[in-house]
Amino acid sequence: MYPQSELGALAARKVALQLEIVRLRGQCAAAADQVARPIEWLDRAVTASRRVAPMLPLVAPPLLRVLGGALFPRVKLIASLVRWAPLVYGAVRRARAASDKK
């Protein structure tokens, strides 16, 4: 049906296309890996922050008092903010929870 020369040319073209596809797949995989690196880092950071979040209300006030007193010993505003931070945090959290229920 087809002459042998045409079949040979088609077979050679097929092999060339298969090699081109393999090369392009490699380039695509490399580009996807490069694009995914920042997303992977961000995903790890979010996961870590979710692990720390439940402990934050317990750890933050004493830590802020120590840091506030060491860094700003004469500033009374920092002490006031640190003293009222847990109350403000709880109020904001309750307000968000109430708004999410509506």
Verbal overview:
The structure is a single chain. This protein has 102 residues and is mainly alpha-helical. It has helices spanning 4-52, 56-71, 76-101. Helix 2 (56-71) packs antiparallel against helix 3 (76-101). The longest helix has 49 residues, at 4-52. It is rod-shaped. The protein starts with a helix and ends with a helix. The mean pLDDT is 85.
List the helices and strands and how they pair.
Blueprint: H1 4-52, H2 56-71, H3 76-101
Helix pairs in contact: 2-3
Sum up the structure in keywords:
102 residues, mainly alpha, 3 helices, 89% helix
Task: Describe the structure concisely.
The protein has 102 residues and is an all-alpha fold. It has three helices and no strands.
